[in-house]
Structure prediction request, 615 residues.
Amino acid sequence: MRRRNPSDYFPPTGQQHSDWRTIRTLLPYLWPPDPQLRLRVVGAMLLLAAAKVVNVWIPVLYKHAVDALSVRDAAIVVPIGVVLAYGGARVMAQSFGELRDALFAKVGQRAIRRVALTVFRHLHRLALRFHLDRQTGGLSRSIERGTKGIEFLLNFMMFNILPTLLEITLVCGMLWRLYDVRFALVTFLTIVVYIGFTLGVTEWRIKFRRTMNETDQEASTKAIDSLLNYETVKYFGNEEHEAQRFDHALQRYESAAVVSKTTLSMLNIGQGVIISVGLTAVMLMAAYGVAGGKMKVGDFVLVNTYLIQLYLPLNFLGFVYREIKQSLIDMESMFVLLTQYQEIADRPGAPALTVRGGEVVFEDVRFGYGPDREILKGISFRVASGRTVAIVGPSGAGKSTLSRLLFRFYDVTTGRILIDGQDIREVTQSSLRAAIGIVPQDTVLFNDTVSYNIAYGRPSAAFDEVEQAARLARIHDFVCSLPQGYATRVGERGLKLSGGEKQRVAIARTILKEPRILLFDEATSALDTHTEREIQVSLREVSRNRTTLVIAHRLSTVVDADEILVLEQGRIVERGRHDTLLAADGIYAGMWRKQQETAHLRQELEQVLEEKETV
Ligand SMILES: Nc1ncnc2c1ncn2[C@@H]1O[C@H](COP(=O)(O)OP(=O)(O)OP(=O)(O)O)[C@@H](O)[C@H]1O
Ligand SMILES: [Mg+2]
Prediction:
C-alpha cells in the first residue's frame, strides 16, 4: 500500500534528525506573516536580552555593597546609592522578563491555533480509508498533546533555554574579565559536563517515556471504544472482559511509569553532584584569592552569587530538557499526521465540475478496498440526466461501494466514472461533492439539535426551508411532537432517535442540499411500509428532474425506475425495467416473488398492530 506510517518518516535511529524536522516544521509558525506579530517577536527578543544583561549586573552591585560594608579600618559608610540601584535592577530584570512573556503570548497562541487548524484540515482531507483504519480517540489526543507540546516548547525554549545560554555566556565573560580565565573555565566546564550528563541520561530515559505515552494512549482508546460499544458489551455480558482489557493496558502503563520515575531520581542526584563539585571548586579558588589578598570579600560573594544564580535555571534545565524532548515527541506524532499521504487529492489546477444535466456514467469500473480482493468486477451503466436507476442485489454485492466511488471516497482501480462527460478524478473534490447528495445506509448524526442536523445540508438555509425539508421527509410532525421540537438534542451519533427517524433526518438534510444528483442507499430501509410509502411520494417529487441512483433491498420501492440493475458479487447480472425483468423470469423475478410473499405477511402484521394502537 502507498500509505506511509510514522516510522517511515521518523526512523528511531535518527531521533536527533527527526527532532530537527519537528522544530523546522514549527519555525514558520513562529515567524508569522502578520507584521504586528513579527514586531512582537522582535520586541520579546530584545526584552529577553535586556533582562539578562541587567541580571548579570545585579551581583556586581551586590559585590560593591559588600565591599563597602567590609572595610576594616575606616568608618563604614552606608552605600545607599548602590543598594538602591541593586533594588532597582532587580525590579527591572523581573519586569523585562514579564513584559517579554506578555509580548510573546500572542505569537505563541496564534502558532498553536494555526497548527491545530492545519492538522484538523488535513485530517479532513485524508481519505476515508485512513479514517477507517484509525481510532478517533487516538487522533484527537494526538492533536491535543501536540498543541500542548508546542506551548511547552515555546515557553521553555524561548524563555528558559535561550536566556540561560545567554546568561552562561555573559557570566563566563564577566568572570574572565573580573578575575582570570580559570574561573570562567571551571564554570564553563561544569556546565558542559552537566549538560552532557543530562542529555545522555535523558536520551536513555526517553524510551520509558515513549512506552508511557503509548500505553496511556492504548488505555484511553480501549476505554473509549469499550464505552462507545456500551450496548454490545451488555448484550454479551462482557463487562469483566472489557475491564480486563483495560486493566492490561493500565498495567503496562504502571510499570513504564515506575521505571520512568526511578530513573528520574537517578538523573536528579547526578545533576546535584556535578553542580556541587563545580561550585565548591570555584569557591575554593575565590577563597584562596581572598586569603592571598588578590580578591576582596565582595569578590567571594560575587562568585558565589553568580554561580548560584546561574545554576538555578540550569537546575531547571534538566527538567526543561526532558519536557522539551517530551514535547518534541508529542509534536512529532501530531506533525506525522500532516505527512500522511493524501490518497485522494485534487489534481493540480483541477477545474470545478460543470454540472449540466447531471448524467452519471460508470465505464467498466473495477475496484477493491485492498489489492487482494476485488469487490467490483467491471461495472458499466449510465444514468441519463434526470433519470432514475435502481441498484438491487444481495448484501455484500458492492452496492454501497458504488456510492462511495461516485462520491470519490476512493478512486477506481481501472475504468472511469463520468459526470456530464467529466472524469471525476479530473475535477475538484469539493465541486464534485457539492453536486451529489447522498442519504447513506447508516446515518450518523452530530450530537446537536434536530434543526442543526437538518440544516447541515445547507447551513445558510432559513428556518422555514429546514421545516419544509422536514415536511418532505415526513419528519416534521414527529419533531413537533417532541417537547423541545426542533431544539431537541439527538445524542451522540444521533442515538436518541430511532433508526427510521434518523433516516428521515438524513433525507431532510439531503433534500435541503438540493444537489443535481441524488443517491439513496437503502434510505428507507428502517421505515415501516406505511411511512415508506409516504416518503416514496416525497422522494419521487424531490428526484423529479434530478439524476437519481437508488440502492434498495425492498424491490417495491424501485418498480418505476428507468432501469434496474441487479448486482451480484460485483457484477451486473441482469438489467432492464421492472416489467421486462419480471417477464424474463430470472434472478430479479425470483427476488420479487419472494418479497411479495413476505410483504404480504408484513402488511397484515402492520395492520394488526395499527388497529391495536387505535383501540
Ligand atoms: N472499508 C472496507 N474495507 C474492506 N472491505 C470492505 C470495506 N467496505 C466494504 N467492504 C467489503 O466490500 C463488500 C461490498 O460492500 P458494500 O458495502 O458495497 O455491500 P452492499 O452491497 O452495500 O451490501 P449491503 O446490502 O449489506 O449494504 C463487502 O463484502 C464488504 O465486506
Ligand atoms: Mg450497502
In short: DSSP finds 19 helices and ten strands in the chain. The longest strand covers residues 360-367. Strands lie at 360-367, 376-383, 388-392, 414-419, 422-423, 436-439, 517-521, 547-551, 563-568, 571-576.
